[in-house]
Amino acid sequence: MERVLDIYKKPYDKDFPVVCMDESPKQLIEEGKPTLPIKPGQDTRIDYEYVRHGVVNIFMANEPLKGRRMVEVTEYKTKKDWAKFIKRIADEMFPDAKRITLVMDNLNTHTAAAFYETFEPLEAKRLWDRFEFVYTPKHGSWLNMAEIELHVLNGQCLNRHIPTMDKVTEEANAWQEHRNNANSKINWQFTNADARIKLKRLYPSLQN
Q1: What is the pLDDT of residues 137-154, one digit of tens each?
Q2: What is the CATH architecture assignment of 2-34+45-195?
Q3: What does residue 49 show for φ and ψ, rounded to 5 degrees?
Q4: Domains of the chain: which residue ranges?
Q5: Are 138 and 170 in contact (CB under 8 A)?
Q6: What angle do CA 55, 59, 65 make, to 5 degrees?
Q7: pTM beyond 0.70, yes or no
Q8: How far is CA 140 from the centre of its chain?
Q9: What DSSP string describes the chain?
C-alpha cells in the first residue's frame, strides 16, 4: 500500500508516466417490453421483464495527473485480452515514454507470462521492458484510481440496460472522448501519513 501511495505523490513526468489499469464486467440486457416515456402526471414506466445477452469486459487505463484515459470493450478478459490492451497502452497512449509505471490489482492474468502466450518472444520482451508493474495489495483495490474511473463511466454512461457489445463500445468511446477533452483529473488526497492513522490496526504492533 505504501509503495502505491508513494508513486501517487510523484510529479508528472512525460518520460515516466504513472498509469492505473482495471477491468469490470458489464451485463448486456435487453428490455422485455419498450419503456413508456414520462408524461404529465406520470413517471417513466419500465417493465420488470428483461432478456440477458451475456457479459462483456471493460478495460480501463487512466493517467490521473494528465486527465487522460483509454477504454476498451472486449468479449472476454483472458490473459491474451489483457496483454493486447497493455500493448495499446504502450504503443498508443505512451509511444515515446521511457518507462511506464502501471498500477493494477494482482489478478492472475496480470503477469509476464501473458505477453509470451500472446506475442512472439521478441515482442513480449519489448513490452515487458516498457513497464514497471506495481500491484495493489489483496483487498486493496480501492487504491487503484482506475477503479474510480470505472465508477464514473458506469454512473455517467452505462447505468441502464444496453443490449449489445457494439452499443456498449459506442457509448464508452463517446464518454472517453468527452472526458479526455474535459481534461478530467483525479485529485488523490490519501497519503502514507493518513494510512498510518486511519489504518493503524493493519500495521504490526511492535513492543520494545
Answers
A1: 988 888 999 999 999 999
A2: 2-Layer Sandwich (3.30)
A3: -80, 145
A4: 2-34+45-195
A5: no
A6: 150
A7: yes
A8: 14
A9: -HHHHHHHTSPP-TTS-EEEEEEEEEEEEEESSPPBPPBTTB--B--S-EEEEEEEEEEEEEETTTTEEEEEEES---HHHHHHHHHHIIIII-TT-S-EEEEE---TT-SHHHHHHHS-HHHHHHHHHHEEEEEPPTT-GGG-HHHHHHHHHHHHTSSS----HHHHHHHHHHHHHHHHHTT--------HHHHHHHTGGGSPP---
* 201 close to 88: Cβ distance less than 8 angstroms: no
Residue with the three cell numbers 513492543: 207
Place of cell 520482451: 125
Q: What is the length of the chain?
A: 208
